[in-house]
Amino acid sequence: MDQPRKIEDQFGRNHNYLRISLTDRCNLRCFYCMPEEGIEWTSREDLMSLEEIYEIAKTFVDLGVTKIRLTGGEPLVRKNVEFLLRQLADLPVELAITTNGILVDKFIDLFEEIGLNHINLSLDSLDKDKNLFITKRDYFDKIMGNLDLMLNRGLKVKINAVLVRGVNDNEILDFIDFTKDKKVDMRFIEFMPFSGNRWEPEKGISLAEILNLAESKYGEKLTRIEDAANDTAKNYRISGYKGTFGVISSVTNPFCDTCNRIRLTSNGRLKNCLFSNDETDLLTPLRQGNDIVPLIHQAIQSKKKVRAGMDTLEQFSNPELNEDNRSMISIGG
Ligand code: SAM
Ligand code: SF4
């Protein structure tokens, strides 16, 4: 039977955005992502080769994927990543990357050359010591230098900050002020539960809390910006500021209705939802020379309507349910 050239689920959601994790290794140890006790690294033989990544990506593009984001772990620590970047840039897709920024200076010429100009940079604090506390590594100056480098070269930068109560929630207004002179889209991400990251519902900061704070400081200068299609953030601007800010609240305000995302882990497992423990092995059948297209359709057909079936906040807050997943570092955010 002919397979449709569109990856649609049973709720009519068209999946045209693929996020590929290139590695589960990283040069940082952010506490909300990498469990303190460590993880079992994917062995070299289990890791998709760069050629396999390209082949799988091409299959997805043939099925209607129009955007590919590279993530990890830290995608830029993957050996010979430049080879893959060049190949993927030739596909008819918007190519994007999520990075902690440490290695950006080594790749910026290549980004420009291949037209990779959508960069999400993770930065959870504007304070050097706090950054060290969160990431457990001392790269703050390097990351800030690379942020300026990207902005000077005219790249479109979104900054992801995971807000955790008692850690960096006192910096919300500092981050918004940061958008005054820097042309960045600041995005506050609600802390999400994954295996081994000691999440508790009280540690998350909601959209309402952020807006109350912003309103009390900026009053009528705070304005809502219209959402782009499939945008996961609610976006705002302080009038007169160069940048914008947005809030992504998967915990208190899930955006599953418009979800168009598929994730591929570095060992070639398709995840139909960030929070789902169901994985479909694409790598083994690919290595055996089998067609992976029917497997992709089956995996997306079995996608649940909301957060892998954890519809309510009560279910989502239950560790027996929300910890039954990989840690974020091995999923690829
Ligand atoms: N190393 C790259 C980076 O840090 O940008 C890419 C991988 S990282 C897993 C992708 C994104 O996931 C980052 O923006 C990070 O902040 C986010 N993330 C990781 N753990 C998270 C959690 N528990 N809750 C919310 N976001 C999380
Ligand atoms: Fe590494 Fe990114 Fe996870 Fe931090 S958030 S540990 S930089 S993968």
> What do we call the CATH topology?
TIM Barrel
Low-confidence stretches: none
Ends: how far apart?
Answer: 34 Å
| Number of helices, counting only DSSP H or I runs of 4 residues or more | 12
Note the main sheet.
12 strands, mixed
Number of domains: 1
Question: What is the name of the CATH class?
Answer: Alpha Beta
Helical content stands at 25-40%
Shape, per Cα inertia axes: globular
- Small molecules in complex: S-adenosylmethionine, iron/sulfur cluster
The whole-angstrom Rg is 19 Å
Secondary-structure element sequence? Answer: EHEHEHEHHEHEHEEEEEEHHHHH
CATH superfamily: Aldolase class I
Briefly note the structural class of the backbone: alpha/beta
Give an overview of the whole structure.
By secondary structure, the protein is α/β, with parallel strands linked by helices. It has one domain (17-331): Aldolase class I (TIM Barrel, Alpha-Beta Barrel). 30% of the residues lie in helices and 18% in strands. Strand 1 (17-21), helix 1 and strand 2 (67-71) form a beta-alpha-beta unit. Helix 1 packs parallel to helix 2 and helix 2 (81-89) runs parallel beside helix 3 (104-114). The longest helix has 13 residues, at 50-62.
